[in-house]
Amino acid sequence: MRTYDFAPLWRSTIGFDRLFDLAEMAQRASEDNYPPYNIERLADDRYQISLAVAGFSPEDIGITAEQNVVTVEGSKSDKTERDFLYRGISTRGFKRQFNLAEYVQVKSAAFDNGLLTIELVREIPEAMKPRRIAIGDASASNMRKLEAKAAA
């Protein structure tokens, strides 16, 4: 994959810091593909992240949601000494971060048969949702203004 240098853009833009950070993180994330994962859109405002974490137990995995980032970390504490003839199931430690859009929140997480699923929901506050504005009669509006001036 090609690497891009965003330094010239830093010199001539203001307020796009988060956008460039996301681009750089996406570039770095493509280099490491462990553990494999899927991101699904379940509905208009519902999403699901699924990570294949074979060999890990729920106690070995930590999920942190902070601002607009979900971090999934795993570390295997295999205390028993084993003599593997072949080791194909990787249990190395990992840290995977997912950047979330505004108003996307983590609702739940579940672990089943080596698959970790994280449910996400976008909940836009009522004040931010578009609302329909009723158009009143202009003569009624002018009447209210005249009444207000007369009362004052």
From TrEMBL:
Entry-linked PROSITE patterns: SHSP
Ranges for domain SHSP: 28-138
Record keywords: Stress response
One Pfam family from the record: HSP20
Top-level division of the source organism's lineage: Bacteria
Coiled-coil stretches: none
Similarity remark: Belongs to the small heat shock protein (HSP20) family.
Protein name according to UniProt: Heat-shock protein
